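hi got a favour to ask and not much time before my train. below you get a single protein, a line of residues and a line of whole numbers that encode the local backbone shape. could you go over both lines and see whether the tokens make sense for that sequence. a few lines back from you is plenty, here it is:
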Amino acid sequence: MWISFSVRYLVNVEDLNNVESAGNYVRHRRAPLVFKEKDSYTVTYVPAVSGEMIAHGYQMNLVELALQRNLPVDNLAKQGILIKRGSDDKVHEGTKCDDKKGSDYELCVIDEDVVEDVAGFMNPNKLVKRTSNIAFSYMVPAIDAVKASTISSQFHVRYANKELMDKYKNENIQSLYNIETASASYVLTGYLNVNSIGKTQNYPVKEVDKKKDREKVALDALMITLTQFLFGAKLTRFKPIVEIEALFVSASEKPFNLPPVTGDIKKYIDLVNSTTDSFAKVLNIKRPVVKYYLKEEKGNVNTPIDAFTVM
């Protein structure tokens, strides 16, 4: 089974992904976006949240759920340190995989760690590469909402009294600083290759125990990541105001990926319907099952449509 998702969030006042600081100024991540305006293409730089940031949030949600369900998790991952196997495995203490090769090495690694099972790893010394079964796009403003996205700096003061400054002989204890925050109607897409979880990608193909349990925990981690917006930095003081405008999920027996939710929602649903029909017909397989949740604006009131309507 191949799970694809496309989500649109209305996000206000977020600092999910800053990238650098210059003095007392902290910048938000930006990304170039190309969109068509009349008869020409325009490039603009917009606020963005990297797929790496979102994947980190997903993997930490996966760690928490896996531990609750007694599935194996690497000791580093338990501490929030997502260092995958590489050419030097010295950081992974207690591993029993050092003397194994090829498919046996991959099987041993994923047997020890659900995170590397789902999110992949690469060890060139063992000639083993495991492609991640989970993928996330950058989260960027929807094409139809590019002009409504914005970044602005927020002024803050770190306060310290005179006694503390005298004690530590450091005037920087009390300082002024500015942090950029962004607001936009963001879109996010991605997929989860459920079928490849719990088995090797290198031949001969072998499976670990409790494959179904691993598939379930990967799906549940994805569900809470997307619906509860559990990813990003600075959530303790910059937790954004989030509303799910649309959430589409498809399940198919072959890789089928949903397009980003942009533009008129009725036209988008028509596009998804026609695409799934064509996909199934060309490959002579069952039509991908698509479910969705969306909020449709009627007048000035946001009226929720029944959650996860089947298309």
